[in-house]
Amino acid sequence: MKTKRLHLVPVLFLFIICLCTVPIQAATLGKVTDVKIKQLSDEKVKLTWNAKTWAKGYEVYQKTGSGKYKKIKTTAAQSLTIKGLNTGKTYYFRVRAYKKSAGKKVYGKYSSSVKIILKKSTVDNKVFTVSPKSNPYQNKYVGSSGFTEQTRSYYVLRSYLEYFANAGGGELHVKKGTYNLVYCLYIPSNTTIVFEDGVTIKRMDKSALFTLCSYNDLHTGKKFSGYNGVHDVKLIGKGTVVFDKEYGGNAAILMGHTKNILIEGITFAHMSDASSHFIEMDASYNVEIRNCTFRDSTTSGKKEAINLDVPDAATGGFTWEGSSMDKTANDTVYIHDNVFQNLTAGVGTHMYTPGSPHKNIRIENNRFSACRTFAVRAQNWEDSYILNNTFTNICASDGSALAIDARGISNVIVKGNN
Fold first, then answer.
1. What is the pLDDT tens value at each position of the chain, 418 positions in all?
2. What does the angle CA 413 – CA 415 – CA 418 come to, to the nearest 5 degrees?
3. The dihedral of CA 331, 167, 43, 52: what is its sign?
4. Torsion of the alpha carbons at 257, 269, 159 and 193, rounded to the nearest 10
């Protein structure tokens, strides 16, 4: 008698295929679970959630208050940092997973919503990084009549300096790009600004760029005296950083009644020697300027790239509204390892206030070339040094140019210069 045992083979094969394929066909993404949110700063939160088997990625949705949800990000990760939020507002977030099937997206269910009311941080973050395309701090000025794409970079920098004025200082890292200022920027105490390689600072009307003064003291009528103004400020350039005056008026940096100031690694370019200096320094204590370049001025005036002056109403050498005009001179100024080229004058003093000598001025290891009036003018300096500087092509058409012009000095040591 014949059997039909061979018929079991295809049946068994079909059964095995069914066992293998059923789990794949039945696999669904389901609902994203364990969504959590954490506030990182005044304007930033972090969202996390559990991974879903078979998920290709996740879509994150956000709404503010009673508004509608909008998709803000598609990501393959299981977390997302959301920036640009505002304290005091209520935010909701939800997440859903997706996979690809037959070339189309197949979605899982939305997660439960998570809610956060953004609170002002109990510990303020004081280190920030910005670019010309950043938003201002906490979106300040966004939506105002003056805020445009052309003015954005100015309001970005201003908003953080205003925050530093209220927070007791901070550190700002300025990324590559051109920053066009609408008005002068005011730098408060305990502030460090690091300009990264490729930064250029300009002003639309070619006037002053920075003044060392708190926004909180601006236009208040407050008068400073001695060295009781802004203190502990660092302006540091990394790589090629240019403060371009475009031959306009007023200083690139103005400081008066200040102390503990560092300016490093910045190129100052295109000065009007008839109406401005690159740096106007008056009544300042413990200032260091190093590894900078000062280049290219007009030829119609006589102003120095770095001017050391005294706030004295009689001479009019310093006219800043925040000064009490108390005749405080500069003390302990170290200018070293800089380049001065193609200028009318390098470093010096051009006004004289009897009884108020500048003390402990040290000009050392600088290179001066193509200065048309003088490289260094030590006028009314006391207990100071001019050491190991290099002078090249210091000349005027009438032969009157001087490498070192010394007037009314006391105990000034000049040594090792070439």
1. 444 444 444 444 444 444 444 333 335 788 999 999 999 887 889 999 998 888 999 999 999 999 999 999 999 999 999 998 998 899 999 999 999 888 888 999 999 999 999 887 654 568 999 999 999 999 999 999 999 999 999 999 999 999 999 999 999 999 999 999 999 999 999 999 999 999 999 999 999 999 999 999 998 999 999 999 999 999 999 999 999 999 999 999 999 999 999 999 999 999 999 999 999 999 999 999 999 999 999 998 999 999 999 999 999 888 899 999 999 999 999 999 999 999 999 999 999 999 999 999 999 999 999 999 999 999 999 999 999 999 999 998 888 899 999 999 999 999 999 9
2. 140
3. positive
4. -70
The distance of Cα 60 from the centroid of its chain, to the nearest Å, equals 31
SS3 277: coil
Query: 11 is written with which tokens?
Result: 């049946």
Copy the structure tokens of residue 267.
């190129």
Q: Kind and range of the H or E element at 115? A: strand 114-117
Q: Give the Cα separation of 332 and 362 in Å (integer).
A: 8
Contact 347, 324 (CB under 8 A): no
Structure tokens at 387: 């050491």
SS3 109: strand
On whether the CB atoms of residues 224 and 189 are closer than 8 A, the answer is no
Cα 248 from Cα 244, distance rounded (Å): 9
Amino acid at the residue 353: T
Q: Residues with Cβ < 8 Å from 240, sequence gap 6 or more? A: 197, 198, 267
Token pair belonging to 217: 């003291």
Distance CA 38, CA 127 (A): 20
Angle at 158 between CA 84 and CA 233, to 5 degrees: 115
The rounded distance, in Å, linking the Cα atoms of 336 and 385 is 11
- 377-390 in b/e burial notation, b at 16+ Cβ within 10 A? bbbbbbbbbbeebe
Q: In whole angstroms, give the CA distance from residue 380 to residue 358.
A: 6
Run of H or E including 309: strand 304-309
Residues sharing a CB contact under 8 Å with residue 63, sequence separation 6 or more, in sequence order: 69, 70, 91, 92
- CA distances in angstroms from 177 to 209, 276, 307, listed in the order given: 16, 25, 29
Q: Which helix (H) or strand (E) covers residue 36, if one does? A: strand 36-41
Helix (H) or strand (E) holding 104, with range, is strand 104-107
Residue type, 182: V
Distance (Å, rounded) from C-alpha 296 to C-alpha 376?
A: 16
